[in-house]
Specification:
- β6 (86-90) and β7 (93-97) form a beta hairpin.
- 25% of the residues are buried.
- It is built from one helix and 19 strands.
- The protein is mainly β.
- The N and C termini lie far apart (101 Å).
- The longest helix has 29 residues, at 2-30.
C-alpha cells in the first residue's frame, strides 16, 4: 500500500512539473510578444489615436486583455487594439476568443508633460485555450519627447488653381479647396500634430480635427470640398505651439 501511495505521489509531482515546464516555455514569449513601433512623442499631445505597438499572438486566446501606461506614475488605462473578439463553442461552452495574429495597440490618453525620456509600458493578461494558467507580462519601452513645432503659414487655393492665398479665398459652392500648412522647421521623429478648427462647421467636407506632419517634412496639404447650394464663410484656424494661423474661405452661389 505504501509503495502504491509513493507511485501516485511521484506521478502527481511529475505531472505538475511537466505542466510547469510547459508553461515556462510559454512564458518565454513564444506565444505572445509586443513590439513597440512608436517611441517618439510630442509634449502635451495625447497618442490615443496613434498605433504605438504591435502585439503578436500564436494561439487562440480566451483571455486577451491588457493595459497601457504612458510613463511611470501615469494613469493605467485599458488598452485599445484592433483585435476582433468572437464567440466559439468549445469543450461544451461558448467562449469569447481572439484568433492568433498581429494586432495594433493604440497609445495612451495621457500626454507627456515635458521634454524628457520616459518608460512606457504595455501590460498583458493572456491565456490560450487549454493552458494550465494565464500569462501576465509587462513590455516596457524607453520613449522620448520633444516640443511641438510652430506653424509658419497657412494658405488656401482652389483645388484646380495653383494660386495660394493667405487671406480670403472666394470659391463657388461645390468647388474644392486645397489648404497648405507650412511649419517653421522640419518635423522631428515624433511628427507634428496640427489641430484644426472650422468655424462654422458643415460647409466644407471633410473637416478633420487635426493632421500630423510626418518626420522630416515641413509642409502638408489637404483638399476639401464645399457643399453645393450652401453659400457662406468658413474660417479655418490651424494650431500647434505659438501663434495660430487662420485663413477665410468665402463660398458664393
Amino acid at each position: 500500500m505504501r509503495e502504491v501511495l509513493w507511485v501516485f505521489l511521484f506521478m502527481g509531482i511529475t505531472t505538475s512539473a511537466l505542466g510547469q515546464t510547459n508553461f515556462d516555455k510559454q512564458d518565454r514569449g513564444e506565444w505572445i510578444d509586443v513590439a513597440w513601433q512608436k517611441t517618439h512623442f510630442e509634449v502635451n499631445v495625447a497618442a490615443a489615436d496613434l498605433p504605438v505597438a504591435i502585439v503578436t499572438t500564436a494561439c487562440t486566446a480566451d483571455d486577451f486583455s491588457g493595459s497601457i501606461t504612458a510613463y511611470t506614475g501615469a494613469t493605467v488605462e485599458p488598452w485599445h487594439t484592433n483585435a476582433q473578439p468572437h464567440t466559439i463553442y468549445y469543450n461544451g461552452a461558448n467562449r469569447t476568443v481572439v484568433d492568433p495574429g498581429r494586432y495594433v495597440i493604440y497609445g495612451s490618453h495621457t500626454p507627456y508633460p515635458a521634454v524628457n525620456s520616459y518608460t512606457a509600458s504595455v501590460h498583458v493578461n493572456f491565456h490560450c485555450l487549454d493552458w494550465p494558467g494565464a500569462l501576465v507580462r509587462d513590455f516596457p519601452a524607453t520613449v522620448t519627447t520633444n516640443d511641438r513645432t510652430p506653424i509658419k503659414e497657412l494658405h488656401a487655393r482652389r483645388a484646380k488653381n495653383d494660386e495660394d492665398r493667405e487671406g480670403n479665398l472666394r470659391i463657388k459652392a461645390g468647388e474644392g479647396v486645397t489648404f497648405t500648412i507650412v511649419l517653421t522647421a522640419l518635423a522631428q521623429e515624433s511628427d507634428v500634430r496640427v489641430d484644426l478648427n472650422w468655424a462654422p462647421s458643415g460647409l466644407l467636407e471633410p473637416q478633420p480635427s487635426y493632421l500630423d506632419v510626418a518626420w522630416k517634412h515641413d509642409v502638408i496639404e489637404f483638399t476639401v470640398r464645399s457643399r453645393k447650394g450652401k453659400p457662406g464663410k468658413v474660417v479655418l484656424t490651424a494650431r500647434s505651439i505659438g501663434k495660430p494661423q487662420s485663413v477665410t474661405v468665402i463660398i458664393q452661389k
